[in-house]
Automatic annotation (TrEMBL):
Organism: Amycolatopsis cynarae
Protein name: Serine hydrolase
Family matches, as Pfam families: Beta-lactamase
Keywords: Hydrolase, Membrane, Signal
Keyword Membrane: yes
Amino acid sequence: MNPSRRSVLAMLGATGAVLTLPAKAQAVPARTPGGLRPGGEFDQFVKEQAEKDAFSGSLLVINRGRTVLARSYGMADKAKSVPNGPDTLFALASVTKLFTAVALAQLVQDRKVTYNGTLGTYLTGFPDDIAGKVTVHHLLTHTSGFGDFFAFPGYLEAAASWTSAQQAMDSTTEFIRKSTLSFPPGAGFQYSNAGYHLLGAIVQEVSGQSYYDYVRANIFGKAGMTSSDFYTKPQWQADSRIAHPYGTLPSGGRTDGLEGRMFVGGPAGDAFSNCPDMARFAEALLGHELLDPAYTQITISGKVPPIPNSPGKPPAGATRPQAIFQAYGPLATLINGQWNIGHSGGSLGEATDFQLYPDSGWFTVILSNYDYGRGTIPPVFAMAQELIVSGGK
């Protein structure tokens, strides 16, 4: 949902030993640097973090279609002693926005939506100065001026009473209708959960399906993501496959935050998935099963010039990005001469990281049911990225 950091991160992962990549990429022999191999620097670091109870979750690292490293640590449910495993489902937080962005791109590809179409073209009930000026492009690039609906007065109290996915969807839209913009559309950059919720509302209105059903059929279904879904709070409580979110207490300890969660996630965050399913999403996206090649490129290429003040300070000694651009969903980052495309996310008891390095063929997905301090890049995420962009040495 509302990320504890947004940095140079991306989209992809894999399961088992195969991830279908473009033929050109498959033809290049894979080279696996020692730091990323089983038993290498990264593997040992993750193990040490888990032993210190500083990491809980699952991860997958692949290079040019072959699994390099797959690990799971910690507990999905501490009270019932259920361990995390490769098939454990995690709340994805804002990585969910990638599904919303691809769904919107599908409708643009089908000529049902345009990127320069205004909000008022697709949704009713907004003031004229918002309806006629905010565009789909603004919503996708966090330049609309809309903010974070979680921070709206009364929102969390109202959300605690919702008992259906459609009620959550429609009621959140109504809260956003009553909000004001922080700046004129296109005049600034502000990470916006409200903007991505409205993109989901547009998907719902234009497709004639609920947002949830559209994503199930056209993202999860087409990609073969058989375990992924927008699970409700009662399902989360009952299903042992789903990791509980262990949030950080002021004392430094952790507590199960499941009881305080909303009924269901939405277009801005908290779909549920696991490492194998995120690999299937990667394969379907890069294999142009979700979008035609042109629209895949439109979605993942940078749109808004270098983004200032991105939350999350790189660790000391880390390779710093040369530029960070907002794409239509993910970030596109130039770092050490290669492009990194993707998204991360975080909330109470959640930290997720989904990365693609198309120039070198690396892919990582890291899903955790521990959170980290706001604005902090989790050390496991940072090391994976550093080893990849530095050649793994």
